[in-house]
Amino acid sequence: MKALVYTEPELLRLQEVPEPELAEREVVLRIEAVGICGSDLHAWRGHDPRRKPGLVLGHEFVGVVQRSSDPACPPGRRYTGNPLITCGVCEYCVQGRNNLCSNRTMVGMTRPGAFAESMSLPVSSLIEIPQDMPAASAALTEPAATAWHALHLTQRALTRPFSECRVLILGGGAIGMLAALLLRHAGVRGLVVAELNPLRREALERHAACETLDPRAGSVAEASFDAVIDAVGAKVTRTQALAAVKPGGVVMHVGLQDWASEIDMRKLTLAEITLLGTYTYTTADLRATVAALHAGAFGNLAWVQERALAQGQQAFVDLAEGRCSSAKVVLRP
Fold this sequence. Notes:
The protein is of the alpha/beta class. The protein folds into 2 domains: 168 residues, Medium-chain alcohol dehydrogenases, catalytic domain (Quinone Oxidoreductase, Chain A, domain 1, Alpha-Beta Complex); 131 residues, NAD(P)-binding Rossmann-like Domain (Rossmann fold), CATH 3.40.50.720. The strands form 4 sheets. Strands 3, 5, 6, 9, 10, 17 and 18 form a 7-stranded mixed sheet that branches. A 6-stranded parallel sheet has the order 13-12-11-14-15-16, with helices on both faces. The chain has a 3-stranded antiparallel sheet with strand order 2-1-4, with no helix packed on it. Helix 8 links the parallel strand 15 and strand 16. It is globular, with a radius of gyration of 20 Å.
């Protein structure tokens, strides 16, 4: 079969690789669509030591069962999946917080991913989808669930519903766009997204009907937002987030561009700011996100760009160089 293989920093090659073997309690999926994640781009740049050359990346997928070791998952049935392979028995799994599983592994990191014609996956990681769900929509389940989980945690920490809040999103990439769409669906009217790329600002204004700003053109008004979603996670955006949030407000940290930086602990303390981190999603989030995508809670998804798997290397280059107006490119094998 053909697969897009990460062979060296900033290079993916379409190569012939062996078909995945069918292991016990697993299925082999024929991939219909797979999205390019920011973490894939980070690995492609050579910045993720966990993802080494020779690996097939890709963990945002939808596929059709080709072969199955479980009669409950027959060939021909379509699924998306949880790319986190979790143990099911650790303290976090039994609490329903399997995103924090102590023994987790991951598709596209510790095992071959979905930038391929086929991929194997444990049956326990399959997520049911409506069988008529468009492939590009189903492939957005994983990133959309990341936004869903982050906003769910943010709402729990806020004293008022989102619909009564002013919200700032830092970063208009896929997570920022999906969070903006979901917040608009939740009735947020005071929504602002700060994004450097003018193509993405235009897409946000058109599809999420929100206000955008170029953070280089001027600073965000201090203490003016009830909630700030940092979908970048850089030193500068952490500083901006703490400055922009109101006393008693919530800062949700999603992105991890810079792993460490100093933050304004004085404001955090004296203004009683809630600072939260989030990691991916639970299985419950994935299932809820499938339903929300299918019901149109994220809009019509016309901003998503589709390309052939063979064009994957160029898609990575275009995303890295900011030439792509879409925050999400979906590859079709």
